[in-house]
Fold SAM domain-containing protein.
Amino acid sequence: MIVDPSYLILSIIAMSVSENNTPVSTSTSITEAEEKNVPTITEVVRNYKTKELIDFLRKEKDLVLDDDDLKIIEKEKITGRAFLKTTKEEFRSLGLGFGPASDLADFIKEIGKRKLKAFSSYKSLKEVLKKYDIDGNGIGTIRQFSPKTYQLKDEDEELQQCIKEIKRRLGNMGTVLADSNEAIRCEYISTILHASLYIVKRITSKELTLAPQLEVVGEESTGRVDYAIKNLEELICITEGKLHQVVMGFAQNLIQCESALQANKRKRKRKSNEEFADDYDYIYGIVTTATEWYFILYTSDGISCTSKNPLNIRFTESVLKEGSEEERELCKNVKRVMEVIVGLLKDRVDVEKEPVTKKQRIQGFFGNQE
């Protein structure tokens, strides 16, 4: 059995608002510094091992390479670093035909000018949905799924601590309003994520850790996510936080999930000499404004979400009154959100590593809907 190293990401990005309620620059806006730091394709390819390089070349639509061409690269054990230094004449001497040798030499020059796209550059959900053969521009056009939940008791220690921390923040910062900024919203998002993670660690005995601002590098896109929960090295959940633009949040979260699965695949191949006939995998995404919570299931062969059934939490100072209806409502809604987060993370941590088992697990989600 191949040990499948794994880690989970939760990336929170919320938009700030100016005094006249106009969105202003945020942690996910494309700044000049961010653009400058986006790596070129060359910088990414340089770190590829032979199998990763072959996968990369196989997916390039502009290259017409057959199995014989790729077998030469495999036989010669050409890594990304060696590939970038190889000339047309050297490709010819290895046995490649004139056409493939010329194409590869030109391709090496071209990728030095091409950059990956920043996650925050994705603004159009319609553009992203085209990648998954979905014709539409709204979150309601995405297939729906019912997320797994883990039932919590009202007296659960971590749930109670989470409620206590939320009340403390409401007492210090006041009600969360429509124009409350990114920093305020992330206070509540972070509190819920920390509590949920602690419960998952308790019930699974897994050594999960939370790392902020983790950089994820995919094959086409890259960027930092605000929170990463790690179990060894596999990404299992990515969270995107927004102040208003939930639709944009969906677009960016889908690309983040795609990049995370690509990163997972690279790590597996680096740690194993075996080829995977079926490389099926899945990851969970979360899009949230702190007051609204949506969940995404991203698999190797499709996407689904809970866009038609979001969970909601109202953060108001009135919950500070002991025994009030508002306090009971807060406890109920925070518990519902945490039950979903804990359920999703537990599912992804517990699932067997083999692709066929993962596929069977996902098929089970939709068994009653088919």
Summary: Residues 6-17+132-365 form one domain. The first strand starts at residue 6 and ends at 10. The chain has two domains: 6-17+132-365, 41-111. The beta strands are 6-10, 117-118, 209-217, 221-231, 237-241, 282-288, 292-299, 302-305, 311-312.
